[in-house]
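pinning this so it doesn't scroll away 📌
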Amino acid sequence: MPHTTTPDGVGIAYQVRGEGAPLVLLAGQSNNHHWWDGVRDDFHGDRSTITFDYRGTGQSDKPDTLYSTELFALDVISVLDDLGVDRADVYGTSMGGRVAQQLAARHPDRVRALVLGCTSPGGPHAVERTNEVRRSLVRTRPDAARQALLELMYTPAWLAENPGPYRTLGDPGMPAHARRRHLAASNQHDAWQLLPGIGAPTLVVHGSDDLLNPATNSPLLADRIPGARLRMITGARHAYFEEYRAVASPLVLDFLTTVRQR
């Protein structure tokens, strides 16, 4: 698996699939590139996909140092530089959407088009999950907490028909310190002041029934980013991109194709 080394000396593993215009796919908090396994092939008609393992996950180094969404965005730049990619489309979901905001705002010359899925601006302007949801995720019994997370990610009907394995529940190989660092990075994200400066054409996508990252965050992002489009997927929860892939993947591809043809 190819690796690159960041300016601060951290080894980052990355993966490239397909051929054509590059699309960077950014996973959720405490997840590695396998987050995208269920839908990655949807994008390979005329483009390549680039993923990477966040520091702290997968085959990347796992230093016990401060992590942030801004730092994760710099790690993306290191990967693009290693590949010789000047500009790419970027699709980030959940915490990956927060990283994508940092990338598009701070490195506008590297982002051609932007898709923000099931994410939020962070900080005091964001709509946080309820205390009931928070409590469900910190139950003392690991199996109960896992089931609560599954039900926040997917609808009961989908879970009944898809017994797993599930790729979106976190990297099981992460050390505890890396999980804490990822949680802090996501919680401390606040891009509110940066969002009006995003110049890339932007699509905001969210499941209407998402309680893990409340769906009311999506219009906040769309209103804050100049010219952004908003699409809600009715009935979808947090992992809309997987359960509702028949809707979500064509939606994203149509948007990216339209941008390319301008």
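📌 and the second one:
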Amino acid sequence: MLLGYARVSTDDQHLDLQRDALTAIGCARIFEEQRSGAATTLPARDALLAYARPGDVAVIWKLDRLGRSLRDLIAIVTALQERGIELRSLQEAIDTTTPTGKLTFHLFGALAEFERDLIRERTTAGLAVARRRGRQLGRPRSLTPAQVEMAQAMMANPKLSARQIAAQLGVHRATLYRHLARSAVGPAEWPQR
């Protein structure tokens, strides 16, 4: 059975073009939605994936309608194929029921994996260069060394609680303790308050 999926990203767009193309090739049922591809959930797409049975063919007007990214698209198609469900994209003329369509999709997968590896390699190299140049990586510290010294002096005053000191410095009490633990004064020397 041919099952169609049509999606537009905004309310300004219309499903008519996709609906007509899916109806023309004989889709028995069409799942439609108006949601951005960046949305965390696509209910109609999920309904199609749940409804499809082995031997069915999921038909889309264009590849970008089905997945948010190439990686997402490949994951969806792989999951469909594991369940015995094929995919046909009308605009790209990809049909995984044919050997050529399967080859095309495997090439897409290989290219996506290659791209991920390149990105990972460039990121790792960039971080290594930044470290060699002495750049501080990660999130900036909540308290400056001067504020940590001030906190140490304030902790010596038994009239001040850790909660009050943290509030004065604009941080949470756990953050205050974490910074003090990194400094010269150890936790055993702090008054417990």
